[in-house]
From TrEMBL:
One of its GO terms (molecular function) is metal ion binding. Gene3D superfamilies: Chloroperoxidase-like. Residues 2-138 form the Heme haloperoxidase family profile domain. InterPro entries: Chloroperoxidase, Chloroperoxidase-like_sf. Keywords: Heme, Iron, Metal-binding, Oxidoreductase, Peroxidase. It comes from Dissoconium aciculare CBS 342.82. This is Cloroperoxidase. It comes from the Eukaryota. Belongs to the chloroperoxidase family. The keyword Oxidoreductase applies. Its cofactor is heme b. The lineage of its organism: Eukaryota, Fungi, Dikarya, Ascomycota, Pezizomycotina.
Length: 138
């Protein structure tokens, strides 16, 4: 829709390992800078994914608890960022290996092999090739 067009992330924008959150930011469903809030992320989850309120609140709370600032409700969809307060301790963002992020992605490489935050086109193209071979069925 016209209110949620794709915009390339600005140089100071944060992106992380979750393609869904990155897409939400790129289309303006959450803050385009990649710094979101509990309420904003829960609302975006409902709008974009059609999940129930309870599921979206749970997922957003998980993001906030895993690396955000509880009093302000802010968290980074990437790593630690100075735009997220450190009221109760360091706010590390949600892109921390083994905590919120896991090593299973069709578009990112494994943490042990390098930068798991960046999109890996060859990996994604392999999945597309497999999907095409089986007419989109897995």
């Amino acid at each position: 829709d016209a209110n949620h067009v794709y915009l390339k992330p600005a140089p100071d924008a944060v992106r992380g390992m979750c393609p869904t959150l990155n897409t939400m930011a790129n289309h303006g469903f959450i803050s385009r800078d990649g710094i979101t809030t509990f309420a904003e992320a829960a609302n975006a989850c409902q709008i974009t994914l059609g999940f129930g309120y309870d599921t979206c609140v749970f997922l957003s709370a998980l993001g906030l608890l895993s690396g955000g600032d509880l009093p302000s409700g802010k968290y980074s969809i990437g790593g630690a960022d100075s735009r997220v307060p450190n009221t109760l301790g360091q706010s590390l963002g949600i892109s921390r290996h083994g905590f919120f992020e896991v090593d299973n992605s069709i578009s990112r490489i494994d943490y042990a092999l390098g930068n798991q935050a960046n999109f890996n086109l060859p990996r994604f193209q392999r999945v597309q090739k497999i999907a095409k071979k089986y007419n989109g069925l897995f």
